[in-house]
Write a structure and sequence with these properties.
447 residues, two-stranded antiparallel ribbon, mainly alpha, Growth Hormone, Chain: A, 18 helices
């Protein structure tokens, strides 16, 4: 396998008029990256997916809302606010940090720093006793952990074009995304079997103090620390540029300013980021309210929802794996368009069926296309980002996926309230998917 790295030559960037000129040899030079290094890169997806699955989605968030906050409505609102603030911080800071990292050269030190912050902040959630007086610092730790998770992912994604040849980028992205689904699922099952379900609890944990549930924070921290090791030990990073931190920051500011003011130079990237912002908003809304729709409209209880979530993760992981080859064969843009069309058709079917069995019959196949829609988006960004500003572009990619994440759920809630029907409210997602696909259609996938 052939990857890419930046030469050690000093690069001087001059912004003149409407163009940015690189002086010196800034062209990426190929370096060999073995299959083991690529698989180790994928292992980071397996490691960090435990956090959103166990902490944000299924276990700890529910514990906070039901067992720590004054009431469930208040707890849900507080968590949503903490998540929104952490994502806003990521959206605002990641383009700048990415620009600095592009000049500094290496990405793994940034990933290591934010991974350590995530592990530490998550582990501190063990002290989240079931009492409302602890709400503030719990939310601070939760928001810090989520910020670190999202920001580390920016630098991790930016390594993709450096460790895969152009003909295997889609495959590697799909493998990583698929492993992420399976890793989150494996950690969730481990938490259920070893911590949450046993009665009496294992390891001498006190159920009265919610220790089995709180211990899931320690499990996720340990999971992340253990399974991220192959990535840090075996996946090569590009060499450092030799610039001082101050100089890298100065050049990063200049480059980001030049990129923002000269977006017309990156018309295809700007169009893709706009399309991604819209269809990602639809996908994020589907993830955030799909469980509510299943519970209210089809009367699913907690165990049924958990089983449904596990099954959906399996199909999504399988889809991400399988469509990696499709991505490399027909290109990421067409892969995304196929995935969005399939999600739209199957999603529309789940809005008109009236039995739980038919809902399962259409919702589970929809999961097959959720993974490819996300993994191929990462692949497309990796293919069209200019090599000298790859991390900066992935920072803007993160911004496009987070900056308007509140709009979809807000429209869903507003339409549901006006119409009195969750089916009509959820139908707004189809509009996001269709508009995003229409904007993506003319994008030319050329680096």
């Amino acid at each position: 396998m052939v990857g890419q790295t930046f030469s050690r030559n000093v690069i001087s960037l001059n912004l003149e008029g409407n163009r940015m000129r690189a002086i010196g040899d800034s062209r990426p030079q190929p370096i060999p990256v073995g299959r083991m290094g690529q698989l180790a890169w994928c292992s980071y997806d397996w490691a960090n997916s435990a956090f959103p699955t166990v902490i944000v989605t299924f276990v700890f968030a529910a514990y906070f809302a039901k067992g720590v906050a004054t009431d469930e409505i208040t707890g849900t609102s507080q968590l949503s606010f903490a998540i929104s603030l952490s994502m806003l911080a990521t959206a605002l800071l990641s383009p700048l940090l990415g620009a600095v990292a592009d000049h500094a050269g290496r990405r793994k030190p940034w990933i290591a720093a934010f991974t350590l912050l995530m592990i530490t902040a998550t582990a501190l959630l063990w002290f989240a006793l079931p009492k409302a007086t602890d709400v503030f610092w719990i939310l601070v730790c939760f928001a810090l952990a989520n910020f670190a998770f999202e920001t580390a992912t920016v630098f991790y994604n930016a390594m993709l074009p450096a460790i895969a040849s152009p003909s295997t980028i889609g495959r590697l992205s799909g493998w990583g995304w698929g492993l992420g689904y399976l890793g989150g699922l494996a950690c969730l099952i481990t938490a259920l079997v070893l911590l949450i379900r046993p009665d009496p609890p294992f390891f001498g944990l006190d159920a009265a103090l919610a220790e089995p549930v709180r211990a899931t924070a320690l499990l996720v921290s340990g999971w992340m620390a253990l399974f991220a090791l192959p990535f840090f030990l075996l996946t090569p990073d590009r060499p450092g540029s030799g610039l001082s931190v101050a100089e890298a920051m100065r050049r990063g500011f200049a480059t980001l300013r030049g990129t923002v003011t000269q977006l017309r130079r990156f018309r295809q990237i700007a169009l893709f980021l706009l399309a991604h912002m819209i269809y990602a908003d639809g996908l994020n809304t589907l993830f955030s309210v799909g469980g509510i729709y299943a519970a209210v409209t089809f009367g699913m209880n907690f165990e049924e929802l958990l089983l449904f979530g596990i099954a959906l993760n399996v199909t999504a992981g399988a889809g991400a794996f399988a469509f990696g080859w499709v991505d490399d064969a027909i290109g990421p843009k067409h892969t995304i368009l196929i995935a969005l069309a399939a999600i739209g058709v199957l999603g529309a079917a789940t809005l008109v069926v009236d039995t739980k069995l038919l809902f399962w019959a259409f919702a589970l196949p929809m999961g097959i296309f959720l993974g490819p829609a996300q993994s191929a988006s990462r692949s497309l960004m990796a293919r069209i980002a200019p090599p000298e500003v790859t991390t900066e572009m992935f920072g803007l990619y993160a911004l496009s996926g987070k900056a308007t994440a509140f709009i979809g759920p807000a429209i869903f809630g507003w339409v549901t309230a006006l119409s009195g029907s969750q089916r009509i409210g959820l139908a707004t997602i189809l509009t996001f998917l269709a508009l995003g696909a229409a904007l993506l259609w003319p994008v030319q996938v050329k680096r």
